[in-house]
Design a protein that fits this description.
With 337 residues, this protein is α/β, with parallel strands linked by helices. It is 32% helix and 19% strand. The strands form four sheets. The protein has an eight-stranded mixed β-sheet, with helices on both faces. α3 crosses α9, α5 packs parallel to α6 and α7 packs parallel to α8.
Length: 337
């Protein structure tokens, strides 16, 4: 029984809910074998239930493949390969009460990333803010192209409290901050990198977010200064990659997502926006084609976690029942609790 034998056996263990195995995912961090026994260390970086199932499946698989051998299989609390990372090492004071933070990103503009971010925040709000108090946050980090105020349907200026902290306006159970709330719509934002970085740090550290169950970060397209600043400033639980059903968007989505992997940010999955046109008879018309999002997801080793239809109601507060259900399901897949 060698290390290679053990790794071959563990290739039969999948990481739920994906079809990819834990070895190709890079979750098996240490294997030592010899004299009829072996030590195996695994790091999943995912939800507790998924990690527990991986541990149980790995232990069972090894016992079945190598009867009579002894195995010490354990889960690691942190990834030893991510000791050096550009991720945020500390939580800004303003975000201390935020339980879960998901970033919404894309490789290129024009794929509806902000639409996905705002409607995901709405789905979180339906889950967490039903009691009245806003328990969901939306941080619009797209400094040069802020869209949150337009998509939320309200432009309300933030206030400042007695502690000189910015108080984010609340809309439909969402506390939101956006550069669109601070400047006139006709004013161009001709800002260089340091100014963009400063704005994101202010959103994270000088806004009175309070206690939140979930926060959505709407990142700008690509992998420029604003994206890097967000990753370095905000502890991000995971990122959802938005693309559309065409080859260029899928290629750039996979390329951009690779930057998050190198930064130690977990990729939660691919969201295919404008995936199809719902027809009156209940069928779906794939007017832009099919399969490109699946190709991007396969390259990243994740799943397509949502396919969003072409729906003009997504730009309003009165989202259609069909799209609302899709985003509620997406929120459930993303949340670890």
């Amino acid at each position: 029984m060698t290390k290679e034998d053990i790794l071959d056996a563990l290739r039969g263990v999948k990481y739920p809910p994906y079809s990819r195995d834990i070895v190709s995912f890079g979750m098996v961090k240490y294997v030592k074998a010899g004299d009829g026994r072996a030590e195996v260390r695994i790091f999943t970086g995912g939800a507790e239930d998924s990690a527990k199932k991986v541990l149980e499946d790995a232990s069972r698989m090894l016992s079945e493949k190598f009867p009579g051998a002894e195995f010490d299989v354990k889960l690691l609390s942190e990834d030893p390969s991510k000791k050096v990372s550009v991720r945020a090492e500390s939580v800004p004071e303003g975000l201390a009460g935020v339980k879960f933070t998901v970033a919404v990103a894309s490789g290129k503009g024009g794929v509806g990333k902000s639409t996905v971010a705002v409607n995901l925040a709405r789905a979180f709000a339906r889950r967490f803010s039903a009691g009245g108090a806003a328990r969901v946050g939306l941080m619009d980090c797209d400094i040069h192209g802020p869209s949150a105020t337009v998509l939320l349907g309200k432009k309300v200026f933030p206030t400042v409290n007695g502690n000189q902290k910015i108080v984010p306006p609340e809309t439909d159970g969402i506390k939101a901050i956006s550069m669109g709330m601070l400047v006139d719509d006709s004013q161009p934002l001709l800002w260089r990198g340091p100014m963009v970085t400063g704005a994101i740090k202010q959103f994270a550290g000088e806004v009175e977010w309070g206690g939140l169950d979930a926060m959505v970060l709407d990142l700008p397209p690509g992998t420029g200064d604003a994206v890097l600043s967000a990753v370095q400033t905000v502890p991000i639980s995971g990122v959802a990659i938005v693309t559309t059903p065409n080859e260029l968007a899928a290629i750039t989505a996979a390329r951009g997502a690779a930057a998050f992997e190198k930064s130690g940010v977990k990729i939660l999955g691919v969201v295919e926006n404008m995936a199809y046109m719902p027809m009156p008879d209940g069928s779906k018309e794939y007017i832009f084609g099919e399969g490109f999002a699946d190709g991007a997801a396969e390259k990243l080793g994740v799943e397509v976690i949502a396919r969003i239809p072409i729906d003009k109601s997504l730009h309003t507060a009165s989202v259609s029942e069909q799209s609302r259900k899709i985003f509620d399901e997406l929120a459930g897949k993303i949340l670890p609790f």
